[in-house]
Amino acid sequence: MIKIDLQVLGTLVSLLRKDGFRVLGPTVRDHAIVYDEIRSYEDLPIGWTDEQNNASYKLVPTEGKSLFAYAVGPHSWKQFLFPPESPLVRSRRTNGSMELSGAQQAPHVPLAFFGVRPCELHAIAIHDRVFLEGPFADPWYKSVREKLFIVAAQCTHPGGTCFCASMKTGPRATQGFDLAVTELPKGLFLVEAGSQRGSEMLIRIPWHPAEPEDVSEAERLFSAAATSMGRVLETDGLQQRLYANLSHPRWDAIGHRCLSCANCTMVCPTCFCSTVTDGTDLGNTDAQRTRLWDSCFTADFSYIHGGSVRPSIRSRYRQWMTHKLATWVDQFGTFGCVGCGRCITWCPVGIDITEEARLIPEQTPEAQPTSQ
Question: Could you state, in order of their start, the residue ranges of all structural domains in the chain?
């Protein structure tokens, strides 16, 4: 493990850009911390932190000049690996014949993610299983992922809705990155390599060996972060408890609150549902088939011939939550939730998945609802 200062961290950004990467990282825009292109360390959210709670997000200035003193914002990295909108096929009618062209090619410029939180590394790993490790690999995802360089930012400032410690996805990243940065006081950073590419990058920057007290300080920060999470989710036996309570009356209470707006799935870093739409231009000569993000909260998502199998909001929320915390384990071997807390922060009515997971098993079902 090595130690660098702020200027050398800026050199790292410059080297990535010099190597042809489009560097994407956290930056302040529209009163939130979002992910966008950065050209230097000065584009990072220097001196800002966030305050998050149920249905509440606020940026506030800090006394110091920390770069990574925030949790996570409304954006997730999946927008760059799994775009919200991507064309699948185009057709054009010319002189009585039809010309077909394939899907839009992934960008030729390789991407570098700068400042990826440990929980988000786990989210990317989940998408790797979905888009790469099945019988068919997604060509866009594969093309971008193979060239991707990841600089992780260890989490030392969990937010009010974070519970990554419960999901064992943070606050410290141990794999899935090329480089990992831990911010220490006084503008210093510990850096460790997680890949051959990361090790080769460190050869190109000036650094000093980390002192034992630096490592001890980092461990203290990780320990403090793990014990100061804004939320806790008890995962032992959770999958079985949810399976045993599919008719629990608590689902009715959630259904009355939930707006079925799909905010939770849009901000979630692991959700990957999509739909396909077809459209033409006004002249009826050009047509395009497009893949769009979708959500299990939309009425059409579960529509089959004859109607929807989940016509009620109650049934849609139950599907989403039991998939994240139960059936996802059967599918992929992990929970579908990484504990980032975005679904709590950005739910307009403040539904808390950790609270619902706790309340359902605690109550004894008194009725067996017949509505879906």
Answer: 2-226
